[in-house]
Amino acid sequence: MKYDYSYFDKGIGKTIAFSKVELERDVKLIHSWMNESHVIPFWGLDGPFETFKQHLNKALNDPHQTLYLGCLDGKPISYWESYWVRDDMIADYYRFDAADQGVHLLLGERAYLGKGLALPFLRAMVRFQFQVSETHRVVAEPDIRNEKMIHIFKKCGFEPIKPIELPDKTGLLMICRRDCFERK
């Protein structure tokens, strides 16, 4: 698997890496994660394989986002969507800058839940997104019910802005500014 970004996290003593999703290679794995009980309430993409495969193919062909597998020492354990805010519906909810990026994520592998990995992975992804020199903010809009992820976003440097009504959920708009992230 080729990695687009790799980072050795001293805090966990492991390498976190992101590899672009490939439909045929990854669809079965990501579909299995979408059907995990801890994922279903927040993603709502559980269901038949062929339906999900069509969804994933459409997402892969959407130029405003890039999909990644998040790997821990080479093992895929998470799914990530990195997107350009200017071309996303979230742009309707705040005054965005042209280079603002957004992030969606899930930890799919049940064996890795509760191991303190969400924060190191999120930090690695935000660090990856900030490699674009023009990007000064990364946004997220976790489901307002997902208190664990909201806590992790805060620990990463995301500030809660306001609740927002999205087509599929009530989200909490959160923004991570480069200067705040770098201080943490």
From TrEMBL:
The domain of life for this entry's organism is Bacteria
Do you know which PROSITE patterns this protein is assigned to? Answer: GNAT (PS51186)
Which PANTHER family does the protein's record reference?
LYSINE N-ACYLTRANSFERASE C17G9.06C-RELATED
Species this protein is from: Scopulibacillus daqui
UniProt keyword Thylakoid, yes or no:
no
**Protein name stated in the entry:** Lysine N-acyltransferase MbtK
Task: Enumerate the Gene3D superfamilies for this protein.
Answer: 3.40.630.30
Query: What this chain does, per the record?
Result: Acyltransferase required for the direct transfer of medium- to long-chain fatty acyl moieties from a carrier protein (MbtL) on to the epsilon-amino group of lysine residue in the mycobactin core.
One Pfam annotation, family name? Acetyltransf_8
Q: Which InterPro entries match?
A: Acyl_CoA_acyltransferase, Acyltransferase_MbtK/IucB-like, GNAT_dom
- Residues annotated as domain N-acetyltransferase: 16-179
